[in-house]
Amino acid sequence: MANILVVDDEKEICLFLRHLLSDKGHIVTICTSRQEFDQTKNDGTFDLAFLDVRLPDGNGLEILKDLKSIQPFCKVVVMTGYSTVKTAVEAIKLGAYDFIEKPFDDIGDIEQLTERLLTDGAVPSQDHVHDLAARIGCFIGQQEEMNQLFSLAYKFAQKNVTVLIEGETGTGKEVLAHFIHEASLRADYPFIGVNCGAISEHLLESELFGHTKGSFTGAAKDRKGFFELADKGTLFLDEIGEASLTTQVKLLRVLETGEFMKVGGETVLRSKSRVVAASHVDLHNAVSKGSFREDLLYRLDVVKLTIPPLRKRVQDIPLFIEDYLRRHGFKLMFTEETLELLMSYNWPGNIRELVNVIKRAVALAEGETSIITPEHLPQKITQHAPGVLETAAAISPAVPKSTGFDSFLDQWQQEIRDMWKSEDITELQLVLDSIKKLETETIQAFIDKSLRKTVGNRKKAVEGLGITMRKLRYYLNEKK
Ligand SMILES: Nc1ncnc2c1ncn2[C@@H]1O[C@H](COP(=O)(O)OP(=O)(O)OP(=O)(O)O)[C@@H](O)[C@H]1O
């Protein structure tokens, strides 16, 4: 017998849960408002709470924080509608154990969840997350942010919601999508990945939705698309931001209704697969530029998981290497100095780049030595040692550092705002001078950034900047 709290302004939901849970022998306390919750929260100890996230006189997340601080051992399940699933992500970050969607589809699910939560031993812990990750060769590391990310992914994997993964190139978006698939009830069905940016619009539509015989030149027979082949599994749409606007309309339709048609087909088919989408560009920016549909983003962005770049979790690099070497059966050791160099590099290609650097080092050391030293690393990393950066900065001493540029931008904005707000008529020359200053400083800052990135290599810098060497010298005040 357990003490269960139900907080929901919908009386039918409260009565339903009271009926369901007291039938199982539990004591159920009901609050239909924040006010009632405040009056009840200190009445005894609750083992479990079902919380609505939207109350007329309060926010469920505030109640959650409150409840967790007074009764830290009370397990909390939040109840959401489809439009509030995003709030569930917040709730889980704040310590809720799980969420259920209203209206309730399956009473059995609630009974099982209650049973599971009230039987401590059956509560899936962080160990389950790590065990699954290890089984599929997915590294999590020790950083809090990554652990929280994988635990969220694990929880949402079991739900029927679309997941959007954001992260720079090579951060492991596909690896995470695969983890979600394996953690879901769909694990026995296919996991199919497609890169929306790698193929032409026409081919992409045919790959996704299939085509009928004769629908285009070369379509010799009917073919199933990924939505059909994935069946009840997971379809991973990588680089979704690259899909054309026409394909986006069709994707929106499948996500909204589950319906689609083959290219050239006339029969409406239904998809049961779950979509996990990924993008290395910020899709909200793409919406504001008009290259991505807002309604599609709304559909995709139900649960957003953002993978941090490797440079923000360099402490995990030695662990990653250890894990990689163990998984591949290499009996090698990286020296402290080598690890330090790897940790001070900025990894624009993220884990993919790290894997390539490890593979290269292993290949160079093979048959020669079991100790990996800086000699086994590419120059871009050994040259990135502290001191080299200072050399790069010394090349253009007049240039502000990027943080300095940030504060310059703030100051500049303020200066223009002050002129704009001034009651007096502003001399236009002052405005023009200020704009000129912005131009000069911005150019200098971008040049500085490129020189830092190329560790002072001017040839590479001009290639990236798309300017001539002469122009670079001009900007660096070395007019020749
Ligand atoms: N968590 C991880 N554990 C183990 N290996 C990883 C992990 N994340 C990434 N990798 C490695 O990095 C490579 C790139 O990962 P992945 O393809 O998932 O990145 P991505 O973010 O989808 O890249 P892109 O943006 O280019 O599509 C993988 O092949 C894998 O070797």
Attached small molecules: adenosine-5'-triphosphate
Rounded Rg: 28 Å
Q: Regions with pLDDT < 50 over 5+ consecutive residues?
A: 386-402
Major beta sheet, strand line-up: 2-1-3-6-7
Tally the helices.
22
Provide the β-strand percentage band. Answer: 5-15%
Structural class: alpha/beta
Q: In CATH terms, what is the architecture of the largest domain?
A: 3-Layer(aba) Sandwich
Strand count, sense and barrel status of the largest sheet are: 5 strands, parallel
CATH-defined fold name of the largest domain: Rossmann fold
What is the count of distinct domains? 4
Q: What is the helix content? A: 40-55%
Number of strands: 18
- Give the CATH H-level superfamily of the largest domain: P-loop containing nucleotide triphosphate hydrolases
Overall mean confidence score, pLDDT: 87
Termini separation comes to: 86 Å
Keywords: ATP-binding, DNA-binding, Nucleotide-binding, Phosphoprotein, Transcription, Transcription regulation
Protein name: Sigma-54 dependent transcriptional regulator
Domain Sigma-54 factor interaction: 139-363
Modified residues (4-aspartylphosphate): 52
